[in-house]
Amino acid sequence: MTDMADLPGKYQKLAGEYAKIKAQIPVLKKAYLDEQGEVSQLRDILKERDQTVRKFEQEVDSLTFRNQQLSKRVILLQEELETSETNSKRKNKHKGSEPTTPERGGAYNGGGNVFNEELQSKIEENALLHKQLQELSAQFDSHVRELQEQLKESQASRDQHEEVLGSAQQRAKEQVDKLQEEKAMLEIKIQTLENELKDFHGRCDLAEQKLISVEKNLQGRLDLATKIIQDKLPFIDTKMRDLNGLNLPTHDRRHQLRAKELITQGANLVEELTKGLSNFFTYSEQRSKIYPADGVTEPLSQLNVKFCKYLHENMLYTRPVEQALRQFVNSLQDDSLTILETAELQPFSKNFKRLVAYINKLFPYYVASLEEENAVSSCTATLASKNKDLLHSLKRLNAVFNKIDNYVSLLAAQSVPGHGHPRPSHTKFFTGFCKALSDLHDAVKEVSKHYNSKVSLEHQLPTATKELKRTDECVVASLISLVTNTSKMAAFMSGNLDFFSQPAGYRTRGSSVCSDAVVDGPRSHPAVNTFRQRTSMFITSINKPCLETVPHSVAIQNRKTLYSSAESKEGLAKQISLFQQKLTKLEQEKEHYLLELQLLKIKFENEQLKTKNLEKDLDVARSVSSGFLSAAPSGSLEDHIEKLAPPSETSTRSDSVNSGSYLDTSMLGHLECYNIAKNDIDTREQLIMNHYNSRINELTLQLQQTDSKGVNFSAEVRALHKQMKIAEKSKEVVQEELKLANQSLAHLKDELQTTTRSYEGQLSMMSEHLAGMNEKLTQQKDEIDELRQQLTLKASASKTVKKFKK
């Protein structure tokens, strides 16, 4: 759908380019035809000049022939004169004899003088004609040379025009071919769109039919509703002022449209301001690289290098301000109310604060740079005073920017819950902001004034280069654009201060006044105002962006990987604590069993000693009883054995005669014996020992297993800790790469803008070049007309000369 939506725009662009090229082709054809006509005219002029040259050569030949004839005639006349003189001398000898000869000789002499005068006049006329002929021939040769040079220049320009025309025709052909291909594609798309349009027309007809039916249904419902309202509605609450105050107000749509329009105008002005600041910073960077040290003959200082670096980073601070405000403008809607409590200006405020901090960071470097300029040997006292004035104006500009930042942060904080101010103070904020903008205009104007005077003094120095002058002109132009922009911003804010200062427009039913206006008391009920505020707060909380979540598939995969490698850190910690508790219990049991074992060993040794003593006593009793067997009865023997036995055994065997069993008490406990033999007692104690030994072995094995498990779990925990550190490091690396990618993206965008500007400049240069070529063509035409007039004048002069000769 986006491609279909972009097709008309692309087609219009292609049609516009085609129309431009089509309009340029007849101009180039006309220029080419004019050049061809001029070349043909010059060729005709050359032919005429050749003809005139030939005529002049023929005239020269005729004049030389006539000169030769005259010279021959002069020679003959001189010979006749000599013969006449000889004859006159001879006649003078016979003067006395012939008196009539002097009269004849005087007459002849008078005739010779007339002839000499005529001859002299002819000679002078011949010399004058010869001189005029030489002058005309020299003029003619120079004129022919000039015409030949002009012909060569016109031929070269014609060749250039032919090349330009050929390249333009080739480009036009290529573009025409492309346009024809795109036209064919567009025709195909148009056909598909026409088919879709037909389908839509059919659907539209169906929709119109449905609409008619729906209108009929709604009309019936409306009639029914109006009838019910007229019959059953007791009163209209909008007529009563107190009851109308309880109605929920609706926002003023005109106020919203006006606010949106003014915010877009302000965004455009802020965009121009950021562009002007960016241009000022970039041209300042270029100037700091050139003056006072150019980096080639003299190395740049460390402060200057850092200053250039910070100035080069200006787009990282100016671009986000423009983008944040543009995003806020795009988020505005016609069906929502835009006031300070609902406007999300926090991103713009943060980015503007970063920009002001960047400007404050640059100020010490400006101070250091101006101090370096003052330290240059070519710096005069007046220039140092101008630098001081510029520094003072820059300091004032930084203070004004900080003031504007404070007001922007105050206005943006009204949308943050808990940081807002009462509505009557909003007017003070806007008036202060308007005054700060006017101060900004004055500060920028002062900076431009001081910088212009400083630059004019620097350009008078002998050390000022062309590159420095060009860069200073660019800086002055950027400051002039900032002055115009700040004046626009100040005029915009002062002209719309009443609109910004007035409270938000709410309309209650039956009236169109503000809810907070106090004319004859409150226009709406206080409960309605509280509900409205709660609604605005709820909407702002809803419009907050949700936190980014991990997709379900990615979460499942991460959970699988987590459980496949090892359990989570908390589970492992719990398991380790449980195993440590078990381990401590097992160690306690182990110690307890070891103590019991030692006690059992001691008891066993005591019992062994007792059994040995009893055996000795039994042997003694048997030996004694064998001696008194004959004298004493059986009962007395038993009494004697009981006397010899220890008191514990006597007490336990009290009923042995009657029942045949007794209780054997020892350190291990009480045991009822049924006349057990000695071998049975040994086997019983051996079994007890074996049982305790096996139990001890089992406990030692369990203890070893728990030790090994604890070691394994500690190793796994260490491995997981290392993996966590590696993951954190990789996260930091990825974040740095993301920052670099964003910086490269911003740099590429800047390069794209610069390339587009350069291409636009080249196009303007080409258009200016074509205009200059047209002017040259008109000049050549004027020169050719002048040459034609000169030729006509020379032809008329030659005709007069010929007439004079004749």
From TrEMBL:
GO terms for molecular function: RNA binding. The keyword DNA-binding does not apply. Residues 81-114 are annotated as: Disordered. It comes from the Eukaryota. Residues 116-210, 569-617, 689-794 form a coiled coil. GO terms for cellular component: early endosome; membrane. SMART domains: KLRAQ (SM01254). It is found in: Early endosome. InterPro entries: PPP1R21, PPP1R21_C, PPP1R21_N, PPP1R21_six_helix. Residues 12-133 form the Protein phosphatase 1 regulatory subunit 21 N-terminal domain. Keywords: Coiled coil, Endosome, RNA-binding. The keyword Coiled coil applies. PANTHER family: PROTEIN PHOSPHATASE 1 REGULATORY SUBUNIT 21, SMOOTH MUSCLE MYOSIN HEAVY CHAIN-RELATED. This is Protein phosphatase 1 regulatory subunit 21. It comes from Arion vulgaris. The gene is ORF38271.
